[in-house]
Amino acid sequence: MRPFLLLSIRAEPAAAADEHAAFARFLGVDQADLPRLQLGVDPVDVTLDDWSGILLGGGSFTWSDEPAGKSAAQQRAEADLWPLLDRVVAADFPFLGACYGIGTLGHHQGGLVDRSHPEPVGPLAVTLTEEGLADPLMAGVPRDFAAYGGHKEALARLPAHAVLLATSPACPVQAFRVGRHVYATQFHPELDLEGLETRIDTYATFGYFDPAEAGTLRAAGRAVDVRHPMRLLGNFARRYARAAPGGPPGDR
Questions:
Q1: What is the CATH number of the domain that holds 106?
Q2: Which residues span the domain enclosing 97?
Q3: Does residue 32 form part of some domain?
Q4: Which of 30, 62, 105, 153 has the fewest beta carbons closer than 10 A?
Q5: 129-148 burial, b for 16+ CB within 10 Å, e for fewer?
Q6: Structural domain contains residue 203
Q7: Crossing angle of helices 193-202/13-27, nearest 10°?
Q8: Confidence (pTM)
Q9: Per the structure, how many domains does the chain have?
Q10: Segment 63-71 long-range contacts (CB within 8 Å, at least 24 positions apart)
Q11: pLDDT digits (tens, 9 = 90+) for 127-171
């Protein structure tokens, strides 16, 4: 099988390792079979035909930051992502971006990314639209479900040609699709309770919340059963896994 590729913006070792392990676990692949590129550090020389699909995780970069305040790593990540997304969208190539990924794809496709719809770190109440209920990526996910998230910025305006798949009371765009195979979510489909607690510890001083609230956020996370978002990754893997070149055709 051609592997899936994980693009990560996390430079913090514990959170980066947990993210990589979680994406692999819920995709249903060995971690060794999910190569990871750290954006802003690693060269991004991606030939689409080498991969079954591409995933882009979250982290502390935000598109709505003033350009002058962005680090060199963030500027390089953005510069590398733009031409890659040009090719992904043009080819309608399987792609799933989470959190930073929805801002990246939304901005690339002409949506408005700003700080008018933040959500606190922890559990979110997400609702699928009619289009979301019918989308194969959401197969097995109920209309209303709990997910983990937490973000400073979000999409305030969906790209005109995009399909809204999910929403929440505080954040109107929780998931959307461009074409048939290019997806993004505001919530984290890879995030379980253990991962949430790792991120609370890792990002306590990154401006997402008052560090004194960390214990309260952990308790809130433990009080909610989050088990449906991970289905998106399993659905993504089953739908897009392709045979290696020269092997039998995969199921696209």
A1: 3.40.50.880
A2: 4-240
A3: yes
A4: 30
A5: beebeebebbeebeeebebb
A6: yes
A7: 160
A8: 0.95
A9: 1
A10: 63/103, 63/104, 63/107, 63/113, 63/153, 64/103, 64/113, 64/114, 64/115, 64/152, 64/153, 71/40
A11: 999 999 999 999 999 999 999 999 999 999 999 999 999 999 999
